[in-house]
UniProtKB/TrEMBL annotation:
UniProt GO molecular function: acyltransferase activity
UniProt domain Thiolase C-terminal: residue ranges: 262-382
Family matches, as InterPro entries: Thiolase-like, Thiolase_C_2
Pfam families: Thiolase_C_1 (PF22691)
SUPFAM superfamilies from the UniProt entry: Thiolase-like
Gene3D superfamilies: 3.40.47.10
Protein name: Thiolase
Organism whose genome encodes this protein: Mycolicibacterium alvei
Amino acid sequence: MSAPEVDLVGLGMTAMSLRPGATPLRLAAEASTAALADAGIGRADVDGLLVGSSQGVRPDRLGVGFAAAGGFGALRLLEHVEIKGATTIAMIQRARHAIRSGEASTVLCVFADAPLAAGKGAGSTYAHSGGNTGVRGLERASGLLGSVPTYALLAQRWLHTTGTDPVALRSVAVTARGWAMGNPDAVNREPLDDAGYDASPMIAEPLRRLDCARPVNGAVAVVLTGRPDVGATRLRVRGTGREHPVRRRRAGAESWFGGGCRAVDDALEQAGMSRSDLDVAELYDPFSIVTLLLLDEYRLTGTVPAGDFVHDAQTGPGGALPTNTGGGQLSGFYLQGMTPLTEAVVQLRGAGGERQVPDATVALVGGIGGRLDHHAALVLERTG
């Protein structure tokens, strides 16, 4: 008996909040209920549950205890998955394997986070990730708290090694905002032009505030199944891939770049497709520099340098490869790898409204973790 095809048939999401409020547990329950309703099934139909949470040990971090708290019964598969920003695609991979191998038939994948807490901002929450010894201790002593300063160093290095004009960062941010203006779920929808970007405060050169993602309190859940009788709109998981460069960041070796393209190559090979088959690309973009870097490393711009590709509006509406069409994490919302996956589902379902890419049937979803330490890729295709 051949292994069943695996389809994504349900999507549920909470409102994306910029204010303290519900716990990750409550947010996960809300998104899960919505995803199951979207798929037309109940909790009793789910025999697999995968949960993901933001890195760092926090008292309210979502874990496998959600199975009981969320009202699920006997499960054949229950795991907590955590590979930083690559977690969402890793959950999709795990669910697909479980369904194709007969370990489960219908799997719910959910991610929830609530970094915005009373009395502090999201930046302080993320700044406490990582340890205090060795290299990380040196970084802290030098004021490199959190991801912004370290990604600023990465940006300086990439712009230098590729010869890219820093104006490309502005092109990424302005294009993302243009997409977000058509996304009712985006938290930054005000018009943005070049002058507005240039007026944004510099946080860590060359990254301005508008080069950085906007964290939210929220949750997203998706349903995957091998059952042909579940779901109205089916998005086929055509291929997945991962690559972990295992960077050591020591003298004599490049600290940031190289690695990741194999994840995309593997996903496309499984799908029996090439880059020319892609209608949209939804890439993990915690900072504007990451959009440029991934377009380059994943070889998504052909022979055109990534900076020129974005500057020439090729990632915008009507471009050669519409990218981060909901505003991404810069202007949409930052919910780790669920942000790009959510937008891929919206586009392939033809539910994008003002931002809909015409005739979009194949999407590449990309996820990265750490400082480009983990890469994951997913190819989705609308089949019905």
